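Q: Entry one of two.
A:
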Amino acid sequence: MYKPLILMSLGFLAILPNCNQLIPTQSLPETSMNTNIAATTSIADLEKAVNQQINQYRASKKLPPLSVDPRISQIARIHSENMASGKVKFSHDGFDGRAKAITVPYTSVAENVAYNMGFSDPVRNAVEGWIKSDGHRKNIESQFNLTGIAIAKNAKGEYYFTQLFVRSR
């Protein structure tokens, strides 16, 4: 067994009325809560797990669950795949274009991104990292009602996460 390579990095960007902010990246170690699910779980199941964990956290704060919208997930998917392939760097570059591509009428949209490698539960690692980060947690706890979630894994074993948060009109 190899020691997990810590490559966790988080990003945050929100477009709210007069708000456009980037939160610095941080690295996080694997936690004892991680289980060995990555090797036996499909990307679709990992994406569902992100939504379940985010909604469990929202429920603990007495917030309503986010509904996954496949149109928003497709926009997130393109960004995750582009980061995983190296077509674009791990960042929020192009966020304005992703926000404009959302066809659901909305009042606000935000984005969390993460990547990691070598963790037995990459989803838990990403979600826990977001919850520990003030900016990411603000997105998770905000009055959004829709989400799009996508994960891409490259040949090096790096997982790239994009979660878009949308408050529809």
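Q: Entry two of two.
A:
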Amino acid sequence: MTEQATTTPYGGTIPAPPGTREVIPGAGPAPRPGERATLRLKDTGDDEPARYAPEWLQLREPADAAARSYDLLDPLRIRIADLPRRADGLVIHDIGCGTGSMGRWLAPRLDGAQHWVLHDRDPYLLHFAAVASPRSAADGSHVTVETRRGDVARLTSDALAGASLVTASALLDVLTREEVGALAAACAGAGCPALLTLSVAGRVELTEPHPLDREITEAFNAHQRRGGLLGPDAVTVAAEAFTEHGATVRITPSPWRLGPGEAALTEQWLRGWVGAAVEERPELASRADGYLAERLEACAAGELRVVVHHSDLLALCRPVDGAA
């Protein structure tokens, strides 16, 4: 995931080159193969430490908010308006909520009373999400929240009974094909739409272009697919899974556009992006060191601009009796 979730968070720290800062946890590759961030996707039976630092999620939140697609909001509002309304308003489940950035972005853009159910495997992040949750909808209606520590792999249609909407951010690319299929089945079984934002698309543009850009991108994408994770294939797989369950699916681009005003985020993203590529292909290390130093210098000088491509997906599942 998760929020998921990145571009996609990789779940840990990597040693920094001499004289440089370490990568904020969540912005760099995992220290052990198979580790994933934010959500406990499998029942390992142990109490794993948090994989995201709140500092990373806070750093990326403005870029996430600017990137999410507004084009999906109107069809989402129309579908929600057509559903039977509960007496206490909309019930929205945010999967892999992290520090709650999705709720802070979406709740003020929807009319009517809302109750957000925030799901994450990290109680530390859930605390941040609950404390900083929005209190008012677009029309001034009340917004309430509850938190649930849990596992997205166990999410079922029963757990989503009565849901008006399922949301997630930067989650799909840290799931497997089976987990995405289970998520689609749960949403379809509950008859609720799903708004799943900011999944990596596997494409990056940096100004000025560099001969190593392509190799770093390819190695990074391979790193994202480790252990059967979907990485940049996630949106395509999710669209197929929801369509198989009869949902109408819309996909729109949601790129990060990073310039001098986002230098702190760009620096952390660069370190994590290059670090993941080198972890996947250690033979890149010697050339990647110079590449990273050159890119960081341009970033510090306000000369670097980056477009990190993502996709947002809206799945309009068929309503079922008793849905929302």
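A: Comment on entry two: Confidence is low (pLDDT under 50) at residues 1-20, 30-47. The two ends are 25 Å apart (CA to CA).
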